[in-house]
Structures are given as C-alpha cells and as structure tokens.
Amino acid sequence: MTVLGDAALLAVGIAALWFGARWLVDGASRLATSVGISPLVVGLTVVAFGTSAPEVTVSVTAALEGQGDVSVANVVGSNVFNLGVILGIVAVIAPFRVTSALLRRDALAMIGTTVIGAVILSNRHASRLEGAVLLALLCCYLGAIGLAIRRADSDDTAADSTAVALTGGTDGETVSLGREGVRLLAGLGLVVAGGRVLVDAATGIALSLGISAWLVGATVVAAGTSLPELVTSVVAARRGDMGIAAGNVVGSNVFNLLGVLGVAAVVRPMTVDPAVGRSLAWLLVVTAIGTALLATGRRVSRREGVALIAIGLGYWLASALGFG
C-alpha cells in the first residue's frame, strides 16, 4: 500500500478510537454506577484490559511471526507511554487524588510486575515457562481485585439496594444494564479495530523509511497500541471519571507485562535485541517516579503531569537517537 493510503488508514483508525473510547467510557461508567462497582475497579479491569487488546493482537501476532523485537518492544514502549504521556495528560487535564485502593494495591502491583518483567527479560529471552508464570501472576492479581469487590462496604450495598427500589425495582435496572452493556461492547470493538488499523498503517509508513524493527516496536507501534488508553483516559478525565482514567493506565500496565508478554512468550519463546536493557531501565525509572507521584499526598498535580509527559517523550527521543 502507498504512503498516502496508509495515511488515510491512520485517519480512519484515529476516528474509530475516538468514538469507540467515548462509548466505552460511557458504558463502563454507567455499568459501575448501576451495579455498585467502583469506577476504579471497572477502569482496572474491563476498560484496562479492553484498551490493551491492540497490544495483545500486535504482540502475539509478532511473536508468531518470529518478530520478538516488535512483540517485546511494544509492551515496554506502551508501558512507558501509558505511565509517562497518558497519566501525565490526565493530570494536566484534571489533577486528581489517588484512592487508598489504587495506592496500596494497584500501584504496588504495577511496580512489582515491572520489576518481575525486567528480571525475566534481563537475559534478552522469554521462555514458555516464564510466560506461564506471568499469566499465573495475572490470575492472582485479578483474584485480589475480586476479593476487594467481595469485601466492599456493606453500607454501599445497602445504598445501592435502596436506589434500585426507588427507581422501580430490578426490571428498569436490567434494561439499563443491557443497553449499557451493548454500548460498552460496541465501543470496545471500535477501539480494538481502530487500534489495529492505526498500527498497521503507522508500521507500514515507518518501515518504508528503513527504521529498525525494535525502534518501530518501541515507538510507532507502542504509541499506536496505546492510543486506546490515551483516548479513553482523556475522555474519562474530561468527564470527571478519574477512577476510570487512572485505573485504565495502571491496569493496562499490569496487564501488558503479565498478560500480553505472558501470552506472547507462551505462544512462542522470544529472544530480543540488546536495546531491551536500555528500554527496561527507562521503564523502571518512569514506573518508580510515577508510583512516587501517586504516593505523594495521594494526588497528582498538573506540574507533576508535565514532568511525566517530559519523561515519556524523552524516551521517544532517546530511542530515536539509540539511547533507549
């Protein structure tokens, strides 16, 4: 396909991502309200895993085709982009306070999985056994979230029951859940399809310029597959759904390292470019800084958001110059 054709597909992918993200956030937010689940939990699970679908598609496809560099670089680059650029933009749009659940459980899970991922990739190889360990850890993380939901405050449950009674019982709620469920799934479908189209187009343009597979994966592909997270978090932040916005970023990073990298390694063991060492160092630094900012007063300010964006963009520049 010509560069002009790829450029047209880029526009189509961006449009699909934008509209899909709006539906995804609307559906997820209203479902959370209807069934009494916190927006943070929805952001950490349904929205985060849904917007990570492009990473799964790209990394697994690359692994199957023997492109380990693209597969791993996509995961590492996406996580730097998520925590640097996306979380930074969310903070610039609307500075937010971090809930105790996000601080204690999910931020710690994010930095823990980053360290585990770095240890596994330190020898530039990811085996099937290591991939299986990562997937097992993902199941443990999901189990922890499930236990947190079950231990939800009984007062919240009582309040939800009262709200259902005041709105006319469960019939009205069932209709609402069905409608919002369709909206969420339609939005998720558009996000996945848009992300895939955009990545294919961007990769075609980049490779036509003779850029290395690792650099393409760490920058163009990583940013492309992270666009669903970017658009979804920005839309959520502008609407005041900060639990979904922040939870989407943190949950996506955990899922990328445990789920995406785990599945890709199980599908086909991978050996990657020596540049993985420098990229992992960037990821560890941005994750440590991001976690520290989340813990500082349990609030991320606009100034801290700008600092995160600078770090994320710095990774891009360093990668382009051969230092990342």
From TrEMBL:
As for membrane topology, the entry says: Multi-pass membrane protein
Task: Indicate the transmembrane segments per the record.
Answer: 6-25, 32-52, 72-96, 108-126, 132-149, 205-224, 245-267, 279-296, 305-323
Q: What is its main location?
A: membrane
- Keywords, comma-separated and alphabetical: Membrane, Transmembrane, Transmembrane helix
GO cellular component, as recorded: plasma membrane
Tell me the Pfam families matching this sequence.
Answer: Na_Ca_ex (PF01699)
Classification via InterPro entries: K/Na/Ca-exchanger, NaCa_Exmemb, NCX_ion-bd_dom_sf
Q: State the Gene Ontology BP annotations.
A: intracellular calcium ion homeostasis
- Report the residue ranges that make up the Sodium/calcium exchanger membrane region domain in this protein: 8-143, 184-311
Q: Where in the cell is it found?
A: Membrane
Q: Which GO terms describe its molecular function?
A: calcium channel activity; calcium, potassium:sodium antiporter activity
| UniProt protein name | Na+/Ca+ antiporter, CaCA family
Q: What is the lineage of its organism?
A: Archaea, Methanobacteriati, Methanobacteriota, Stenosarchaea group, Halobacteria
